[in-house]
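Recall from the previous chapter that SMILES is a line notation for molecules. Here it describes adenosine-5'-diphosphate.
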Amino acid sequence: MAEHDMPAGEWLDQHRGETVVVKFGGNAMVDDALSRAFAEDIVALQQAGLRPIVTHGGGPQISAELVARGIPSEFRGGLRVTSPDAAVVVRDVLARLGTELAAQLRAAGGDAIALAAEPPSQGGALFAGRRIGTVVNGQPVDLGWAGEATTVDAASIAAVLDSGRIPVVSAIGIEEGTGDLLNINADSAAGSLAVAVQADWLLLLTDVAGLYRDWPNRDSLVTTIDTVELTGLLPSLEAGMIPKMTACLSAVEGGVGHAAIVDGRIPHTLLAEPFGTSGTTVTRLAEGTAP
Ligand SMILES: Nc1ncnc2c1ncn2[C@@H]1O[C@H](COP(=O)(O)OP(=O)(O)O)[C@@H](O)[C@H]1O
Ligand SMILES: CC(=O)N[C@@H](CCC(=O)OP(=O)(O)O)C(=O)O
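With both inputs in hand, we obtain:
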């Protein structure tokens, strides 16, 4: 039987024990009903025997707080140019959102725990990383204290999973060498985390139906794309889709079973089987297959 023809429940049953990294985007998080449905779905996945790890963003909430505190910031190439003052705001807003999300998961019946920059068990950072720049229109751009993860404390996350709890991970990092706060894009952090735990699935929930090849042409939605084609398409992508698709690409190349962008505006989208049905799935090109 094809995977999509299976009766509801049977598909999930066949995927018991699999680790699913789910990233909840800041844009989808602003809707209470969607947040509640998201929490219910995560708990349902755990009850079905899967191992969900929740990561979250908070871009709109961070922007609002920066404006309120009069701290300037802008996005370049989909990433926030981050001053040390802005990084403190990023840490505080993400910590608040992670705590709220964990509370929402507990209200839905799950035993969730929010993990912030420094898990007390380790006295260290969940994400250690380095600062990165980007290139916009051929010009190098300094992003300040925006960065990427170089190491992820997968052991702390696995310990939470093994204890039957749901880890809720905020994407704040610590810069290697200096110990400075590092603002890691949440999609990028989710991808690094998925590789570190060798997840079976990386699901990035967002506020759009998936990747559009020719954005904003609504007829250009992509349902599946392989890593070779995606590598070719990446330089033409804009804004938030750049870190999202880069994360999917490096996850699949790094050994994650499946990566998908999922339409987080659809209530209970996470229970649509197989995962990724309502969005764009990135597939690994089989070895020896011509592009
Ligand atoms: N090619 C594209 N396909 C889909 N969305 C795109 C594309 N290019 C830019 N976007 C924009 O990216 C947004 C999603 O990224 P982002 O705002 O960072 O979301 P999130 O908060 O979920 O991480 C979409 O709402 C859309 O406006
Ligand atoms: C470097 C960088 O851009 N960091 C992001 C972190 C939050 C995030 O990624 O949130 P979303 O998933 O809601 O976009 C930021 O400062 O907005």
